[in-house]
Amino acid sequence: xxxxxxxxxxxxxKSGETCALAIADLHxxxxxxxxxxxxxxxxxxxxxLRRLKALISTHKPNKLxxxxxxxxxxxxxxxSEWHDVxxxxxxxxxxxxxxxxxxxxxxxxxxxxLPEDVKLLPSTGTIIGNVGLIHGHRWPPLSLLKCKTIMxxxxxxxxxxxxxxxxxxxxxxWVKAKCSPDKLASALTKKHEAxxxxxxxxxxxxxxxxxxxxxxxxxxxxxxxxxxxxxxGPLLRSGAFDLENAEAYxxxxxxxxxxxxLQIRKALY
Length: 269
Description:
Blueprint: E1 2-4, E2 11-15, E3 18-23, H1 30-35, H2 45-59, E4 63-66, H3 79-92, E5 98-102, E6 118-121, E7 126-128, E8 131-133, E9 149-152, E10 157-162, E11 168-178, H4 181-192, E12 205-208, E13 219-220, E14 247-250, E15 255-258, H5 259-268
Parallel strand pairs: 3-4, 4-5, 5-6, 8-9, 9-12, 10-13
Antiparallel strand pairs: 1-2, 2-3, 7-8, 10-11, 11-12, 11-14, 14-15
């Protein structure tokens, strides 16, 4: 069972005795990278920590799983990240029994920053019940085909809205799209150069999570969406997902319509 925690960019995943709180894309250190370009914004790490601790206190999960991009720098770690990332996890570990991190494309050299009792999972992700969890920048394993639902982060989905005067705003969204199990199986077997063997494809939907760091930018999915675009990641470019008719929801649960409908409205302005 997946339950988005309205109005937060987080979800609870329950299966058996597991109650996991899932979030994605912290990008700790993002504001430091901006300051080096002369753009100064308030530090966000303590804000992220307070929000996450409040969610843990309210919903009492026995596991926290982060769907990649804990830090912002890609191949290395900034000096501030060597301080902020360990402090962040040392504090969180006081409030939840288990913490797991799926490696994202910004998580190079993350291992020495994590406390020993935080488990770093490969980018191929993990499975909880019938939910497959990945970051989204790399192909998942064939075992993901056993899952009914995929959850991913990576693209920081947003929606862009314009009023008749031309003012443009963006808002974070959840995205829910249907999946063709057979097309996904075909794409994965071709990529891995392997047979499905005894796996019967079950994947029928995907949830794309908004970034937990709401100070980040994002990909407006109703503006010139191109399934070949590199930023979407290989899974979404596979053709197995019906992105045109994907449903968009604001963090407060408001259903906005499908991405196709929202693109039509934008063209009318």
